[in-house]
Amino acid sequence: MRTLSIAQNTTGDDARSAMTRLAGLPAERRARVLSSVAQLNADPDKLLTGESPSPGALIVVSHERWFIERVIS
After folding, report:
1. Distance CA 30, CA 24 (A)
2. Is 41 left (phi over 0), alpha (psi -120 to 50) or beta?
3. Domain layout of the chain by residue ranges
4. Is the pLDDT of residue 6 over 70?
């Protein structure tokens, strides 16, 4: 069994790292991540304009592979 460990307290560095990872994703995968962010009632356009992600959006972006494979697939 694989588990996902999510820090309860995140930092600005965590957010910057997640946004860098998001920017580096292939377009199709990035679209799926942004769609997942929208399903959390968060505005994905805010991420694209450089705003810091909400805690929920940060989880989706920073753990996108786990999230996509297990939650939305």
Report:
1. 8
2. left
3. 27-72
4. no
